[in-house]
Amino acid sequence: MLIVFDVGNTETTIGLFEGTTLRADWRIMTAVPRTSDEFGIVLRSLLHASNVELRAVTAAAIGSVVPPITDPLAKACERYFGVTPILVDAKAALPITVQVDEPLSVGADRLINTLAASQLYQRDTICVDLGTATTFDCITADGVFLGGVIMPGVRTSAETLTRRTSKLPATELIPPKRVIGTRTEECIRAGVLFGAADAIDGIVRRIKAEWPGREVPLVVATGGLAETLQPWCSEFDLIEPTLTLQGLRLAYDLLVQQ
């Protein structure tokens, strides 16, 4: 089996593939400092809960935007699985073209999403990834990353709002029943979630207006809050929460053949 790690600034998403099938996936907090042994304990527990033995894992791939996490995670793979993980980053020889001014500065997650979109959909795509930041990746059918947009993530905006205002409480981001709130928490939820949805739709429409080709791009949403925002984002064509994990699997298959 192949285990893949999408290391984001807030959460690390882990996927376990048996062939092309995603057998299990988990999320752990990235911000918690861990040694390689602590990662090993976490991984052992997750696999045990899914009735998978350590020796069943025969390959690993890591896509990370948090360098301090990459090394202990890679060492955990070596020690507990006996495999050296493939690192997927801007230096990896992927069949994509990064058509931006500073290609090496593009985050691993955005490159992996580019690969996944070009391989799985084979059409022009806008990939909206709702993580710590909300990113809009502009990808052509033949795997060219044109650039995109980065805006504050939904939870990042909510946390900034409550942290920098003395009387606004921290609020769970559950869908509000209406726009006009009658309690402070309802007002915050409506502002954050509806505001994010309208901002996302607006950015997508602006991107479509500038799109270099005639084909209307497919809009794919991924990330932890994609399903939460789906009911209010009219521009989403497809929700694929595990797109980056699928991209890591594809990247591993391509890189291991080289």
From TrEMBL:
It catalyses: (R)-pantothenate + ATP = (R)-4'-phosphopantothenate + ADP + H(+). GO terms for molecular function: ATP binding; metal ion binding; pantothenate kinase activity. The active site is at D109. Coiled coil: none annotated. GO terms for cellular component: cytoplasm. ATP binds at D6, V7, G8, N9, T10, E11, T12, T13, T132. GO terms for biological process: coenzyme A biosynthetic process. K(+) binds at D129. InterPro entries: ATPase_NBD, Type_III_PanK. Belongs to the type III pantothenate kinase family. Catalyzes the phosphorylation of pantothenate (Pan), the first step in CoA biosynthesis. Homodimer. This is Type III pantothenate kinase.
